[in-house]
Specification:
Layout (H helix, E strand, L loop, with lengths): L7 H21 L2 H7 L2 H16 L2 E21 L2 E18 L5 E4 L5 E12 L6 E7 L1
Antiparallel strand pairs: 1-2, 2-3, 2-4, 4-5
Helix pairs in contact: 1-2
């Protein structure tokens, strides 16, 4: 209501773009890129996950990503913040490799997995940039 230029279909395209940017940054283990795309609370969780992987000499890979559907499921304003949740259905190859040998140690690099996640974006009320605030798996 505070952003007259808000367009739900344009926002959905932005959310889809962010989905692919986040996956790419995760694959590169690029904490700076991730930090620019998400909020501080989510980033703390992801930094810990990346640190745990590095400590074990492993790297999580997500390849052949295909976004099957996306839709806005919820939108609200609370304590000076706008929030929008988007349901994303996709499939991809999700696996973890040993960094030294390149061997797959978890998941599969040939059998795609399907998943559904709910990504919640937030911003200060009004026409401000959106950041990814939370990711929940269905």
């Amino acid at each position: 209501m505070m952003d007259r230029s808000f367009d739900p279909s344009r926002f959905l395209k932005t959310a889809q773009d962010l989905f692919f940017k986040v996956q790419g940054a995760w694959n590169r283990q690029d904490a700076e890129a991730l930090r620019s795309l998400c909020g501080p609370e989510l980033m703390r969780t992801w930094e810990q996950e990346l640190a745990d992987l590095r400590a074990r000499g492993r790297k999580n890979r997500m390849d052949n990503i295909a976004l099957r559907s996306s839709e806005i499921t919820e939108a609200w304003t609370e304590t000076g913040q706008d929030y929008i949740t988007v349901r994303l259905q996709a499939n991809l190859l999700d696996y973890t490799v040993d960094e030294k040998s390149g061997a797959v140690v978890d998941g599969s690099d040939s059998a795609p997995v399907e998943f559904e996640e709910f990504w919640t974006f937030s911003r200060p009320v009004g026409p401000n940039p959106w950041n990814l605030a939370a990711v929940q798996q269905a």
